[in-house]
Amino acid sequence: MAHADDGRLYAQWVELLSWLEAEAAARGLGFQKVADFPDYIYRMERAYDLPTTVMSVALASGGQPLMVAAVSPRHVDMKGVSLRLMGGSKHWHLHAGGAGLLEGKRPFTRERLAQLVDGSVRGLATV
């Protein structure tokens, strides 16, 4: 991804964070920050110019992470967002699009996220 798209990616990440928090609340899951951006942690007294300090979060059930979402830090050239199910091989890679995150060429919508969270909760129920 070109550096010109960085601002768009991070703005879309903030939107995804709000979706994740809402989806967690709707299902009684925990929403936990996992990590802040490294350059935020070490910035000392300098201003921070990204729309969030949060680099990764987890949706949790019973205190255990169920799904982890993370965005690339600023120093990475090919930036994107990853969604990963814990304890399995399922993962999704998203990148910035003109009107929102893209899953390949397909728009990644809140409805798509809801399907993924529902599937992970159903999978948890079968364990």
UniProtKB/TrEMBL annotation:
Q: Provide the E.C. number(s) assigned to this enzyme.
A: 1.6.5.9
**Record InterPro entries:** Frataxin/CyaY_sf, NADH_quinone_OxRdtase_su15, NADH_quinone_OxRdtase_su15_sf
Q: Could you tell me which Pfam families the record lists for this protein? A: NADH_Oxid_Nqo15
Keywords annotated in UniProt: Oxidoreductase
Q: In Gene Ontology terms, what is one molecular function of this protein?
A: NADH dehydrogenase (quinone) (non-electrogenic) activity
Name the SUPFAM superfamilies on file: Frataxin/Nqo15-like
User: What name does the UniProt record give this protein?
Assistant: NADH-quinone oxidoreductase subunit 15
Organism whose genome encodes this protein = Deinococcus rhizophilus
